[in-house]
């Protein structure tokens, strides 16, 4: 019998069933860039062929079933005013002028962002390159590999453009701003985010929508703010589901260090097809998550990308993955994955080892 594709493996897992072996997910903007052969990051991020080539080699070298072609997290928000500085080796946000001079006017433009002719993300150079790269990748791998793809909800959109500390400060100094923001988030910013989500899902041939819950961190959000945010994200996810239907799986992303998995599962569990999270390495023990959620929803975890994978020996990586696979086997179904994108400098031998270990130990019998 010929082996099933990574995409089939991923779909079986996302349906709550056990494929031949545990799907392997990971991705890395920076490793894909290195593999593309383009030496300067500034050239890479605007070159669709290079981005596609980087991920093509990524898939071939690391034998992932699930990956995701991304650039920096601001690429899609450039059209809304998110400015970055691209150095030869890293993309980082530019310091906005309103950091030093609070300016209520920065929120004005969000009033009509639902006009996609004016605010189509593809007007940005990096985003345009990324959309083209997805097209190329879908032609070559669309029937073989699942490309996780999506954007976070409206509040994160605002935070990525304006800056979280700036918004928190402005809410305290400008009277009535909080109510105004809520209107924007449930109105035009919601519309923009939903429309762009659908665009992304189309760009990966309806393979999946990836919903980020990174802000649901126990040490970061106080309970009031958490409830406020959840009501907005829930509305967002419902609207995305309405647009894409229930046949398109919703994958998730939770890379925080102190993940509020219980809250996420309680509020969003019925709307999503998996819980991906960072463990081992975060404050949430994998064993505890397996006990609580392993019988209820597909789980994706098991690789500490910041600790063991980045700095560990071959033996340490082996021990970690074997232990995670053992725990994964107690679940209804399980995928092997890190908390977040792999960092530049992660040893390639360690990354290659993941597929080998999965093939040896991660087989369902
Ligand atoms: Zn992440």
If you had to describe this structure to a student in words, what would you say it looks like?
With 365 residues, this protein is mostly helical. It is 47% helix and 8% strand. It contains 16 helices and nine strands. It has helices at residues 6-14, 29-36, 41-44, 48-62, 116-119, 125-141, 154-162, 164-173, 177-186, 188-203, 223-244, 261-268, 286-293, 308-311, 314-328, 348-361, and strands at residues 66-67, 84-86, 91-93, 146-147, 209-212, 250-253, 275-276, 299-303, 334-338. The strands form four sheets. It has a three-stranded parallel sheet. A two-stranded parallel sheet has the order 1-4. The chain has a two-stranded antiparallel ribbon with strand order 2-3. Strand 5, helix 11 and strand 6 (250-253) form a beta-alpha-beta unit. Helix 10 crosses helix 11 and helix 15 (314-328) packs parallel to helix 16. It is globular and about 60 Å long. The mean pLDDT is 95. It binds zinc ion (ZN). Zinc ion binds at residues 214, 253, 255, 340. Residues 214, 253, 255, 340 line the site of zinc ion.
């Amino acid at each position: 019998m010929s082996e099933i594709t990574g995409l089939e493996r991923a779909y079986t897992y996302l349906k709550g069933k056990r494929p031949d072996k545990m799907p392997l997910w990971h991705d890395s903007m920076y490793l894909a860039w290195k593999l593309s052969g383009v030496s300067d990051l500034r050239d890479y991020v605007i070159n669709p062929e290079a981005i596609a080539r980087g991920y093509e080699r990524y898939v071939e070298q690391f034998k992932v079933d699930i990956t995701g072609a991304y650039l920096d997290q601001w690429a899609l928000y450039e059209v809304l005013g998110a400015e970055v500085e691209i150095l030869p080796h890293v993309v980082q946000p530019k310091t906005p002028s309103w950091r030093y001079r609070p300016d209520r006017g920065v929120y004005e433009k969000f009033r009509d962002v639902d006009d996609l002719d004016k605010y189509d993300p593809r007007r940005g150079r990096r985003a345009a390159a990324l959309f083209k790269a997805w097209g190329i990748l879908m032609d070559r791998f669309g029937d073989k590999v699942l490309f996780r793809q999506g954007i976070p909800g409206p509040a994160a959109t605002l935070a990525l453009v304006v800056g979280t500390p700036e918004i928190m400060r402005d809410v305290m100094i400008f009277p009535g701003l909080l109510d105004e923001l809520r209107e924007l988030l449930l109105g035009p910013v919601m519309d923009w985010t939903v429309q762009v989500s659908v665009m992304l899902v189309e760009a990966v041939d309806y393979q999946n929508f990836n919903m980020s819950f990174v802000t649901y961190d126990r040490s970061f959000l106080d309970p009031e703010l958490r409830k406020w945010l959840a009501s907005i994200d829930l509305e967002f996810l419902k609207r995305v589901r309405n647009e894409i239907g229930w046949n398109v799986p919703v994958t998730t992303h939770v890379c925080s260090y102190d993940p509020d998995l219980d809250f996420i599962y309680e509020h969003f569990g019925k709307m999503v097809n998996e819980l991906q999270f960072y463990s081992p390495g975060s404050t949430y023990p994998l064993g505890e998550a397996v006990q609580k959620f392993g019988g209820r929803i597909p789980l994706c975890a098991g690789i500490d990308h910041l600790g063991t994978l980045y700095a560990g020996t071959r033996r340490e990586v082996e021990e970690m993955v074997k232990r995670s696979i053992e725990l994964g086997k107690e679940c209804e179904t399980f995928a092997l994955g890190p908390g977040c994108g792999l960092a530049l400098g992660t040893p390639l031998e360690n990354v290659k080892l993941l597929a080998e270990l999965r093939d040896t130990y991660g087989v369902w019998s």
